[in-house]
């Protein structure tokens, strides 16, 4: 039986109960959860196995690959530069990236890049993990592509290309890659990395394919979606020509999947972050406290820029300037549906902030959920966190 370790304020015992139940029901291999209520770290729990192959235990300082939770951090870097006056979010990209203005992309704005409206959800050719490590080259390649829709007229999740588009905002206006800028400007005190040194990679949890037990039926998308949507998602996932498949699987991480050190060292700025749960929750704590962006900047960034049918994910999604807002792709308890924001990650991870509630939550598992729309582990944890505030 897995022993959950760490600290939990008695008022937030419901979070611990959910976390422990996930292990008891066989939903977890190893995982960590952290919650801040205002400036107080009220939950810091971990448990299980960090590496199924060796049996290495998950420790207090075990970081985990966070997949698309990365996007919120990358977007924050771009927003900080806009706040400083480096560029106009609603101005043309060509004013600072002239090469981008071709093949129907002349009217693209930085806001389009940050809200999945750029029309470039996937590369036009297969890209290797080694090639993906060259961020300037991948941005230049995207600048040469024709968009799949007129920028600004629709939105579709840019699962991986998002990072090199938004990341180019950071690189061109700071002279630094996203990971360098993030560490220099607002995450130097956090165990959070976009581009990880080898010592961080060595202590990171290893991702494992989910081993589902019979009790997990309630965690399937059938609990939150209808059969027609599920069928369309399943078909799109296996169709190599579908936007969903092309967006999620190119670049391919190569041998070892997202445990591949080539990917972890490169720090893909859409899905390459390694962090501990307290560090990711600490990022949201600092963000909602106004220590990274001004409150007015964050308020403006949370206004939905894209809301509705997603051309890539085939369900309703909602995005501000880089942050997910409550929708089918960002399940949020009723108490948070007006103010919660953040980002989910493949396999079940989540980072969430709510300035109105003063709440910051991070949950990072290494047992990958095997459902197309994830499972409900993160939802149940955030639900418990909100309920503990009352």
UniProtKB/TrEMBL annotation:
InterPro entries: Beta-lactam-related, Beta-lactam/transpept-like, Beta-lactamase/esterase
Domain called Beta-lactamase-related: residue spans: 16-385
Transmembrane segments: none
Identification of the protein by name: Beta-lactamase family protein
Organism in which the protein naturally occurs: Actinomadura rudentiformis
Phylogenetic placement of the source organism: Bacteria, Bacillati, Actinomycetota, Actinomycetes, Streptosporangiales
